[in-house]
Amino acid sequence: MFKKIKNIILKTDHFLYKKFGSDKSIKFLQNIKEAKIFFSYLNKIGKESEARFVGGCVRKSLCGENIDDIDIATSLEPEEIKERLTKKNIKVIDTGISHGTVTAILNQKKFEITTLRKDILTDGRHANVQFTLNWEQDALRRDFTINAIYADIDGRIFDPLNGVSDLKNGKIKFIGSSGERIQQDYLRILRYFRFFTQYSKTDHDQDTIKSIKQNINGLNKISNERIFDELQKILSLKNVYSLFSRNQSKEIILNIFPQFKHHERLSRINNLDGKLRNKYDKYLILALLIIDQSNNYEYFCHKYKTSNSIKKRFKNISKNFKDLENKKFYSEENIKKLIYLSNKDDVEDLLLFSACANNKIKTSIIEKLIDYVSICEIPKFPISGDYLKNYGYETGETLGNKLKLLEEKWIANNFVLDKRILEKSLKN
Predict the structure, then answer these.
(1) C-alpha–C-alpha distance, residues 420 and 425, integer Å
(2) How high is the pLDDT of residue 15?
(3) Three-state SS string across 287-308, please?
(4) Which of helix, strand or coil describes residue 260?
(5) 80: how many CB neighbours lie within 10 A of its CB?
(6) Residues 155, 22, 18, CA angle at the centre, nearest 5°?
(7) Greatest extent of the chain over all pairs of C-alpha atoms, in Å
(8) Of all helices (H) and strands (E), which one includes residue 109?
(9) Fewer CB near the last or first residue (10 Å), C or N of the chain?
(10) What is the pTM of this model?
C-alpha cells in the first residue's frame, strides 16, 4: 500500500522535511498544472506567504491512491487569497470563509484553500478558529496524524506529528487526547472507523475504543446529513466487510446504525469472483445491510433523508425480496421478463443482492445470469393502440384492457408471438 519514500532529510529552520519518492502517484500531485498556478500566486505575496498540500491528497499520494479532492493550506488569510486570485481571473467561492476556507476553481477543478488556524472553542460540531502563521499549530488541530502531513509543490513533506510513519505502519492515531479530539467534532468517531478499515495493520488501540464509547452519544449532535455523508465514504471502501470482522468495531457500528441487521451478508462479497465483486457500489452494500421483509430500509431512508434515486433502488429490491427465494426466479425466461418490465440495472441489482443475501443460490448461477442481462435484447411489443383502432376498438378503457391482455400473452410466451398470431386474438 505505502509507496517507498527516499530518506533525503533537509533541515529548514525548525521544520523537518523528507523528499517524496519518484513514483508516478507522487508526480501526479506535483504536476497538476492548476495547483502549480495556485502555488505560484500564493507563494509570492510576501515574506510570510507559503502554501502546501495537506490532508487527504497527500495521504492518498503516499499510498498510490486516486486523488479526487485537493486541499491546500496557506499562511495567507482568506481575504488576501481572494484578492490575489480574483485579480488573476480565478473564480473564488466563500465556502467556509469564517473558518478560513475558500474554494478556488480553475479549469473546472476545485481546490479548497484554507488559512493556517488553531481552535479557540468547539461545541462538538463546529469550531471557532483563530488564524496563525504556525504550521505546527495548524497540524495540532487536525484529527489524525495521517491527515496532518503537508507537502510543498516541489515534493517536500512537512510531517510534524510523524503521520508518514503511522501511515506506513498502519496506525490510526488521534492527535493528542482521543477524547478531546472526538469532543471537538463527534463525527470523528465515524472517520476513525473509515481510516481504520482502510489503512490499519494493527488492532484497535483500547484507549481509543474507550474514548469512542464514552463519547458515542455525541453523534446525536451531528446532523443526519453529515453522518450519512461519512457513512457513504465508509461503504465505498473495497474492504468494507472487514468493518464487521472485529467485535469492537461491529459493536460500535451497530450501536450507531441499529438498522444494519444483516451485516453478515457482506462476508460473502469477498468470496465472489473479482469481476462480480467490483459491481457492488456503496448503495448496494447498504441495501445488503438493511433490506429485508420489514420496513427497516424505509425507516433508514427517512432518517437519513436519502435521495429519491436511492429509495427507488431499495424499493425495487424490497418488493422482489420474497421472489428471490424462489428457484424459478433464476431462469433466463424470468430475467428477460423482468428486464422488459423494468430495466437492466434494476435486474442486475436484484441478482447482485441475491448473491449475498440468498445462501441457497450458487454464485455461478448469478454470474451466468448477469452475463445474460448484459447481452439480452427485448423485442418491441408489436401491437399499438393505433393498430387496435383498425379492429374497431375505440380509445378508452376497453382498448387499454385489450392492449394489456395482448401484452401479457406476449410476455407469457417468452416474447415470441408474432403479429399474425396476436391478430388472431383480435378477431376472436
Answers:
(1) 9
(2) 37
(3) HHHHCCCCCHHHHHHHHCCCCH
(4) coil
(5) 16
(6) 45
(7) 96
(8) strand 109-115
(9) C
(10) 0.85
| pLDDT per residue as tens digits for the range 197-211 | 999 999 999 999 999
Give Cα 295 to chain centroid, integer Å.
24
Buried b (16+ CB within 10 A) or exposed e, 28-67: ebbebebbebbbebbbebeeebbbbbbbbbbbbbbbeeeb
Would you state the pLDDT for residue 391? 63
- Predicted confidence at residue 127, as pLDDT, reads 64
Q: Which domains does the chain have, with CATH numbers?
A: 1-169 (3.30.460.10), 175-257 (1.10.3090.10), 385-427 (no CATH)
Q: Are 149 and 59 in contact (CB under 8 A)?
A: yes
Per-residue pLDDT, 24: 45
In this structure, which amino acid lies at residue 228?
Answer: F
- Residues in the chain, overall count: 428
Confidence of residue 70 (pLDDT cuts 50, 70, 90): very high
Q: What angle do CA 226, 257, 308 make, to 5 degrees?
A: 60
Q: Cα(first)–Cα(last) distance of the chain, in Å? A: 71
Nearest-angstrom CA–CA distance, 32 and 30:
6
CA distance 70 to 41: 17
What local confidence, expressed as pLDDT, does residue 394 receive? 66
Q: Cβ(161)–Cβ(173) under 8 Å?
A: no
| Structural contact between residues 52 and 194, judged by C-beta atoms closer than 8 angstroms | no
What was the pLDDT predicted at 123?
A: 60
d(CA 266, CA 197): 14
Three-state DSSP at 156 gives: strand
396 Rama sector, left if φ>0, alpha if ψ -120 to 50, beta otherwise: left
| Residue 79 vs residues 26, 85, 214, 239, 269: alpha-carbon distances, Å | 31, 10, 40, 42, 49
| pLDDT of res. 9 | 32
C-alpha span between 340 and 342 (Å, rounded): 6
